[in-house]
Amino acid sequence: MDLARGTSVRSAFATLVLFLAVPVLSVLTAKPAFADFRVCNATQNLVGVGIGYRAQAGWITEGWWHIEGSSCKTLIEGPLSSRFYYLYAEDAERGGRWDGPITMCVAEKEFKISGVTDCVARGFQRAGFQEYDTGEQANWMVQFTDEPATDGDNAATGSNTQ
User: Fold this and answer.
1) Domain count across the chain
2) What is residue 26's three-state secondary structure?
3) 94 and 23 co-located in one domain
4) Domain of 6, in residue numbers
5) Distance between CA 9 and CA 154 in Å, rounded?
6) Which three-class secondary structure string do you get for 90-115?
7) Does residue 4 have a pLDDT over 70?
8) Helix, strand or coil for residue 27?
9) Same domain, 59 and 87
10) Which partner from 3, 7, 85, 154 sits 20 to 30 angstroms from 62, CA to CA?
11) pLDDT at 61 over 90
12) Mean pLDDT score, 17-25
């Protein structure tokens, strides 16, 4: 009878250890949920990128991120807080650019600028940014390519990255 009770205790202990180990192992082996705004450069050239977005304090533009050919960079880490983001980029080698109709401020060197009006009067340059509607997704990726868009400009496509 003692043998049966000992086996029962060991079986109950093994079940308890397994019950506790499964949640711990699932947490340790789970892939982290990446939420961010990434830009990928599918060209062979170095690209400089600026981003604009609406923050609680108002409009902000930031730059320059230098993205080597065939690589990606995260411009905003963590879940996205805005629905709309705006990008302007320049090909550092060929002089081309990916732009749009939304005017915001940029600077020659690294910058973080509050406000999008009176750029020149405040000592900045004006640039046309392209709008990306993330649809309030937690993460988004834009890819710059050499392929022409329907209007003849260089293409930059955006998508939710899951």
Assistant:
1) 2
2) helix
3) no
4) 1-30
5) 70
6) EECCCCCEECCCEEEEECCCCEEEEC
7) no
8) helix
9) yes
10) 154
11) yes
12) 38
